[in-house]
User: Fold these one by one.
Assistant:
Number 1:
Amino acid sequence: MSEDDLDLRSLSDEELVEQMHDDLYDGLKDEIVEGVEILLERGWTPYRVLTEALVEGMRIVGIDFRDGILFVPEVLLSANAMKAGMGLLRPLLAETGAPKVGKMIIGTVKGDIHDIGKNLVSMMMEGAGFEVIDLGINNPVENYLAAIEEHQPDIVGMSALLTTTMPYMKVVIDAMIEKGIRDKYIVMVGGAPLNEEFGQAIGADAYCRDAAVTVEMAKDLIARKHNQLARGA
């Protein structure tokens, strides 16, 4: 029986969710949208659809991406399918006040117009339940500071793909220090030419090798920050 012949409505909830994991893995946008619609019709809450069908599906994609089984083009297809499903869920989640894991602003730094890695991180983070404000490419320090002020995120993410634009990340961090706001935010940096040492040298909280690692690291850092605040540290 081919994918085309499969009637998603004939599946039980459990089978449908498993099928959606497979469809996300294969980057099948229309099937994901249909699956989301069916689960909502069956009385699933938007948050349950998000976590059990979409986030869990993207978690599987993320693991295989990290382990080199899936590659960027395939993950982008999965992320686009996820995005289509999120398109239906986002307004419903806003209405029901579903819990957000955290909020992140992310952008490629000034002088750099590469955005595939950044887009992937945005989509994976959104897929994990974060609210993501994507500033796009070629962002001067003013863009970051304005976005921080407007959105009050938990995380500030910066991306660079050129060795010449990497140092600009330090400019942004230094500006945050100067304004006395650096310690209020988790700063995460990523991009092909970066490494752990560079992240530490510029004073970032974390260097993220790839999108899958970013999600895990972000959750971990937010949990730690909340624990510190709870302890009054």
Number 2:
Amino acid sequence: MRTTQPQSRSQFSIVTPRSGNKRSAFTLIEILIVVIILGIIAAIVIPQFSNASHQARENTMRDCLRYLRTQVTVFKAQHRDVPPGFPGGSPSSTPDATTFLAQMTNYSDDLCNTSATASDVYHFGTYLSSMPANPLTGATGVLVINTSTMPAPDQSQPFGWIYNTQTLDLIGNVEGSDSNGVLYSTY
């Protein structure tokens, strides 16, 4: 009779079934696929963000023009129907940008004379804390004209706004049209 001796553990191999492929890292192909997908998403989204930024600047320009026009109208209503820009409030004098900025950013009296501080005499204003920069060009200056027609915008000039004292038109000094095809000069 043969005696069976217990076999040692080393002779038995315990095979455990795999419960699935357990990986501890991504393959190069998987990483490349993710990078390509992210690249496609970025190519779609980034132009929309830059377009949204430009549209925001266009809307800011509309708001600036609306506010500037309102303040010019208020100045004119408070100063014997004389619009800003005329030195001493005399419509027979030549309007200029320095006078316009002073009258809009300082306190003024009935005759359009200006002062940095308010008093019983200088009781009108201020209409602007400062001349805003044109959101599309960054230029802050204003060209003051006294003609019956507006000049065409010329971005090579150092001013952001064009103001006509006769017609009270105030436009941005921006050539071309916006993303909807509307001329900037018609804002």
